[in-house]
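This section describes the prediction task in plain terms. A model, or a person checking by hand, is given the sequence of a single protein chain and must write out its three-dimensional structure as a string of C-alpha cells. No templates, partner chains or ligands are provided. The sample shown here is typical of the held-out split.
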Amino acid sequence: MTRSIRCARRAAALLVLVLTAVLVAPATPAHGHVQPIARTDPARDSVVRSVDLITVEFTGPIRTTATTFTLRSSDGVDHALAAPEFAAGDTVVRLRPADGDDIPDGLYRVGYQVSFTDGHPAVGVVQFEVSRSGESRGESWPADDPAPGRAEPERLDAAGQWPWLAGGAVVLVAGFGLVVWRLRSRA
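The expected answer:
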C-alpha cells in the first residue's frame, strides 16, 4: 500500500470519528433541571384531608429573591399566601395560606416561577385536591384556565439544534474533501 493511501485512510477514519462526535454530542441532554421538583407535600395529584402547609423541594438551590408562588383553586380564585419560608440551603420552600387556616375542599394548583442559583429558570404547577372525606370528587381543571403557571416540560426540546448539526456536517464534509484533494495533488 502506498503512503498516500494509508494517509488517506487514516484521515478518513479520523474525520469519521470527529463527525460522529460532533453529531452525537449536541444531541445528548443538557443535564440541567429537567425535573426541577424533587418532591412536594401534598404530593402531586394527591387527595388530602386538609392543608395548612405546602412544601416544595427543588432539585437544587434557588434564588430566593427571584421566586413567585401562587395558589389557585379550580374555580379561578387566587388564595393569598404568606411569605415563603426557605430551608435546606434554599432547596425547600414552605408555603402557608395567608390567613393561617386550612384551605377549603377543592382542586388546587400551586404555581411556581423560580430561578436556580446556576441560572436555570423553572416554571410549573403542582396540582392536588383537598377533600375532608378523603375521597376525590373527580374534578378536573377547567380547560380555559391554564393558570397559575404552565405545566412542566416532560422532555427537553431539541428543535433548535438542527442548524448546528447541519453546519457541523457541512464543515466536516468540506474538511474531508480538502484532505482528499490535498492527498491527490501530492501523489
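For orientation: Residues 3-29+159-186 form one domain.
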